[in-house]
Amino acid sequence: MQFTLKPISPEAIPEALQKAERYRLLNEPAQAESLCQDVLAVEPNNQRALIMVLLAITDQFGHGGSLARSREVLRRIEGGYEKAYYGGIIWERTARAQLRQGSPNSAFTAYEGFRRAMELYEEAEAVRPSGNDDAILRWNCCARTLMQNQNLRPRPDEAYEAVRGE
Question: Is 148 in a helix, a strand, or coil?
Fold first, then answer.
């Protein structure tokens, strides 16, 4: 069944974004994403809505969240700090979803995701606004996860393993 979505008024955007944030806090990321989509239909470059929809999508990793959609939204986010920081969020949340999945090779994939997130957090740290240590906090979370989970490690060098096995 198809419906024509009803647009919200520009005046309703601030309250819609507040509600979207509440839905995220209530662990209802799909609802938050829907509200952000309504905001973006009216203001396609609303940075607050883009960031919130990216976070709502990544909240759903492992439960229907799309990595491709999160990267598509990231391309629309403006600013060097924001691109690096939220790029790190995507990699970190992908790694955490891999950890929960627990499939073969997930420890290697999760390790690589955490390390890529840490690289992006370092990029964000280098250009962060004064007094904003969010990238440092996220980097530390990734580092602690790697230190506490000894099974998370780099993928063995397959060329080395082949030579050693001969």
Answer: helix
